[in-house]
Amino acid sequence: MSGSYYVPATSKWPALGSLALGMMMIGTGMMLVHGRGTIIMLLGLAGVVAVMALWFRDVIVESRSGLYDAQMDRSFRWGMGWFIFSEVMFFAAFFGALFYVRMFAIPWLGGEGTKGPTALLWPEFTAHWPLLSPPDASISGPAQVFSPWHLPLVNTLILISSSITLTVAHEALKEGHRKICRNWLAGTVLLGLCFIVIQGVEYYEAYAHYGITLEAGIYGATFFILTGFHGVHVILGTLILIVMLARIIRRHFSPEEHFGFEAACWYWHFVDVVWVGLFLFVYVF
């Protein structure tokens, strides 16, 4: 109806999602601090996935029923925009921590700057990055670090290529070429899966041969926090793209109305940009 405004029914999903996310975070914290809590974390994770699946199901049903109008479309766009902004701030905090450690904390421990007297704590310490020899002898640093020109470079090329294939799929959808969109989107999903597998191989190499672990001083901690959280985002993004692929196959979306697909593209491109920053500041410089 012209001039109507759709008001969603009262939903239980926000409350249940918050409870599941809280359980997952509590379990994760217990694992990191006390070495136990895996079951709580996994139950919370399962709850988060279930809530997301059921919540998105309801949104898809409402959209396919023709309940949404231009105002709802604008609301979705603003919501997705603010969500990506929160993700930018999320990763900015970790990049900021890396910058602080490299530019301030380590030089101070080496005797530089106004806080140079902190070098008295470990007078034999030499400031350098990557930090293979932490100042505290009770902490073992990594044996060596990854060359950026092997697996990290391969993953960088994979993600950049995936942004290109996804853009082609998006443009095909806007032109009404559903088969082309399906094929290029399937290629994007395949590239995302390849990235995940290669990241897993790199983590195995890190623990088995490079001595890069969460306990390997500040380098190990920042390496896994930055690449690990990004890896989680790639996994989520790949799952989202798989859902989009299934919807394309089921002939959802139209050239004029496909914000669900467009939002998935926004998210994937954001994840790709973050990886470029990781490649430069974690692996190269």
Give your account of this protein's structure:
- Its EC number is 7.1.1.9.
- The chain crosses the membrane at residues 12-33, 39-57, 78-101, 149-169, 181-201, 221-245, 266-284.
- Belongs to the cytochrome c oxidase subunit 3 family.
- It is found in: Cell membrane; Membrane.
- It is a multi-pass membrane protein.
- Helix 5 runs antiparallel to helix 6 (217-249).
- This protein has 285 residues and is mostly helical.
- It has two domains: 9-62, Helix Hairpins, CATH 1.10.287; 75-284, Four Helix Bundle (Hemerythrin (Met), subunit A).
- The protein has seven helices and no strands.
- 72% of the residues lie in helices and 0% in strands.
- It has helices at 13-34, 38-64, 70-109, 151-174, 178-210, 217-249, 259-284.
Shape-level CATH architecture of the largest domain: Up-down Bundle
Structural category: mainly alpha
Strand content: under 5%
The number of distinct β-strands equals 0
Give the tags.
Four Helix Bundle (Hemerythrin (Met), subunit A); mainly alpha; cytochrome-c oxidase; Helix Hairpins; 285 residues; 7 helices
SSE topology:
Blueprint: H1 13-34, H2 38-64, H3 70-109, H4 151-174, H5 178-210, H6 217-249, H7 259-284
Helix pairs in contact: 1-2, 3-6, 3-7, 4-5, 4-7, 5-6, 6-7
Brief overview, please?
With about 280 residues, the protein is mainly alpha-helical. It has helices at about 15-35, 40-65, 70-110, 150-175, 180-210, 215-250, 260-285. Helices cover about 70% and strands about 0% of the residues.
